TrEMBL record:
UniProt source species: Cairina moschata (Muscovy duck)
Subcellular location: Late endosome membrane; Lysosome membrane
Keywords from the UniProt entry: Amino-acid transport, Disulfide bond, Endosome, Glycoprotein, Lysosome, Membrane, Metal-binding, Sodium, Transmembrane, Transmembrane helix, Transport
Pfam families the record matches: Aa_trans
Reactions this protein catalyses: L-leucine(in) = L-leucine(out); L-tyrosine(in) = L-tyrosine(out); L-glutamine(out) = L-glutamine(in); L-asparagine(out) = L-asparagine(in)
Record flagged with keyword Metal-binding: yes
Signal peptide span: none
GO CC term, one of those recorded: lysosomal membrane
InterPro entries reported for this sequence: AA_transpt_TM (IPR013057)
Name listed for the protein in its UniProt record: Neutral amino acid transporter 9
Length: 559
């Protein structure tokens, strides 16, 4: 209770280094890191067992402090609440649009308690997502050499823009921004326009990610069900698509045309062919399976709190590690198949440089996207002075992971007899449904996505319904209508446009235009201009970055 007797203001005197604004001296403990105990629906939400984000007491205290803060100017810290009146911070979660969720623990002694190694791993884990499945296809679209160069360049460019996001708060003078997120910075510079556009682009990327999830879950559920049915009924099935022979079979589904048959296969066993045909009729990748998912996932989306599913975050790491293992084993059996044709295309190989390279940049924009939650992730770093270094190392590891998976799959793809053009937008589709290693990978990814999907839906609900109704759960009816709209978008795309590479690059280029290219560059230029430090080289470089982001978006619709 001794702490409760401390005055909010300390008389002037003593060490002048502790003087605050207007000659008011502050207790040094007041400058410790204070977690926001009332989290507004920007990019961070807390997940509790009930629908409230905070207790009634904390909510009332938040309103009181907001009222007091309006009684003085933003530069006056006299009415800032001291630590001892704040409730203990609830657990909060940071959601990545790539499909992972990370729990941020409360601060201690002014800093987070994660070491640099943990911080690096958390950023790597948050960035790794479904985009990794499309990296080999993106390299094929860009060409082998240009694909490698683009992964390196996009990694460096997105890292720099992410660095600008991290530094954006500290460039705001005379305002306490210790608890601000990047959308708060956008609101400071651009007003309500910045707030609403950040919400819009965030929703585009959220819905895009959920649509990609639905398409992939339909794919994985279809192939998993097919594998189990054939195994239980001892059916030997060969898909009617071109492929290699042997135990490590690789297939080319796209060789059947722009709209490959979903269930065309041939039964070679003497089993009940009628039963198999009936199974194929009711177990169709695009016509039936996407609708089966509705019965499972729609009720989960309507839960008031998805905190239970956040416990399965480790599955994301396990899935990525297993994919790396799968790629390594497959490459060891298939060998390397490369031939360098710099500008000409032949029957089995693609040129090293192709005009379709923006399709890879669109995928990479989402693959390297962490800009909406990087501030919170780094706030939990024990060594704040190492933030830039740890962020750079994390980006390096992410880039190396993408390079490894993309290059190995492309190089080991058996050409001849198959053409490199056969590499699918989801490289697991190049392995038949009866491939055991691919079956395990699909099981891992299916279960991971089914646990992450409600988390993404919860975040979408918080951002939309709180803005419209001021409540993340205004009524069962409103939540149901929103969830039906989101699920319907996924079902329609899985039914008529199961093109995950296209969805990833469209959503990546769209949200990347705002969060990666435009806002970080504009905020940096404006802050330098207000400080009288803006130079022509800096202005030209950041205008060029904005132009690159705009060109990246436009190119997705032209190719």
């Amino acid at each position: 209770m001794e702490e409760d007797t401390k005055p909010l203001l300390i008389p002037v005197g003593g060490d002048e280094s502790n003087y605050g604004i207007m000659n008011i001296q502050f207790n040094p403990e007041d400058f410790k890191c204070k977690r926001p105990f009332h989290v507004e629906p920007t990019n961070i939400v807390s997940v509790n067992d009930d629908m409230q984000q905070v207790t009634d007491e904390a909510s009332a205290m938040n309103k009181r402090i907001q009222y007091y803060s309006r009684l003085t100017s933003p530069t006056d810290r006299a009415l800032i609440a001291p630590d001892h009146v704040l409730p203990a911070p609830d657990e909060i979660y940071v959601y990545s649009l790539l499909g992972t969720v990370f729990r941020v623990d409360s601060c201690a002694d002014g800093y987070g308690k994660n070491s640099s190694i943990v911080t690096i791993f958390v950023i790597w884990n948050t960035m790794m997502g479904t985009s990794i499945l499309s990296i080999p296809w993106g390299i094929k679209q860009a060409g082998f050499t240009s694909g490698i160069i683009l992964i390196l360049l996009m990694g460096l460019l997105t890292l720099y823009c992410c660095y600008r996001v991290v530094k954006s708060r500290k460039m705001i003078p005379l305002v306490d921004t210790s608890n601000w997120e990047f959308p708060d910075v956008c609101k400071y510079y651009f007003g309500s326009f910045g707030q609403w556009t950040s919400l819009l682009f965030s929703m585009v990327s959220l819905v895009g990610a959920m649509v990609v999830y639905w398409v992939l879950m339909s794919n994985f559920l279809f192939n998993t069900g097919k594998f189990i049915y054939n195994y239980v009924h001892d059916i030997n099935v060969t898909d009617i698509v071109p492929g290699t022979n042997g135990s490590n079979k690789v297939i080319c589904p796209s060789a059947a045309g722009d709209h490959p048959p979903q269930n065309r296969s041939m039964v070679f066993s003497s089993g009940n062919s009628t039963g198999f045909e009936l199974f194929e009729e009711w177990w169709n990748k695009s016509q039936t399976v996407p609708f089966y998912l509705v019965a499972v996932l729609l009720p989960l989306l309507n839960l008031k709190s998805p905190s239970f599913f956040a416990k399965f975050n480790v599955l994301g790491t396990v899935s990525v590690i297993y994919l790396i293992l799968l790629v390594t084993v497959k490459a060891a059996h298939l060998g390397i198949h490369l031939e360098y044709n710099w500008f000409t295309e032949n029957e089995f190989f693609v040129p090293e440089f192709r005009i379709l390279f923006p399709q890879l940049t669109g995928v990479l924009t989402l693959a390297f996207f962490i800009h909406n939650c990087v501030i919170t992730l780094l706030q939990n770093n024990k060594n704040q002075e190492n933030n830039v270094r740890d962020l750079s190392i994390a980006y390096l590891l992410v880039g190396l992971t993408y390079l490894y998976v993309g290059v190995i799959i492309f190089a080991s793809f058996p050409s001849p007899p198959l053409s490199k053009e056969c590499i699918e937008q989801n490289f697991l589709d190049n392995f038949p449904s009866n491939d055991v290693m691919s079956f395990i990978a699909r099981i891992f990814l299916l279960f991971q996505m089914m646990t992450v999907y409600p988390l993404l839906g919860y975040l979408a609900r918080v951002q939309v319904l709180r803005q419209v109704f001021g409540n993340a759960y205004p009524s069962v009816f409103h939540v149901l209508i929103l969830n039906i709209a989101i699920v319907g978008a996924g079902v329609l795309m899985a039914r008529f446009y199961p093109n995950i590479g296209g969805i990833i690059r469209y959503s990546g280029a769209t949200c990347g235009l705002a969060f990666v290219f435009v806002y970080p560059s504009l905020i940096y230029v404006i802050s330098l201009h207000r400080a009288g430090q803006l130079t022509w080289p800096v202005l030209i470089i950041h205008i060029f970055i904005i132009v690159l982001g705009l060109a990246n978006l436009i190119a997705q619709f032209l190719l």
